[in-house]
Amino acid sequence: KESFDVPQKGADDVCGAGDTFIASLTYEYLRTKDMNKAIKFAIIAASTTIEYLGTHAPTLEELNAKRTIYL
Question: Given this model, what pLDDT does residue 11 score?
Fold first, then answer.
């Protein structure tokens, strides 16, 4: 059983965070075939989504910039 660190931050709005998590998990897993990398990427994506009011779909450019910080 493995655990994953999640950035601690206040949530402005959680709308879309679950959808973003599942979509980015699927994307990264299909790209890498590595579930651990996919989970970490999905955590970054969902935590980015909650930084905004309303539904926010992070771009790959935005996530790739954060990937270097968190992964």
Answer: 80
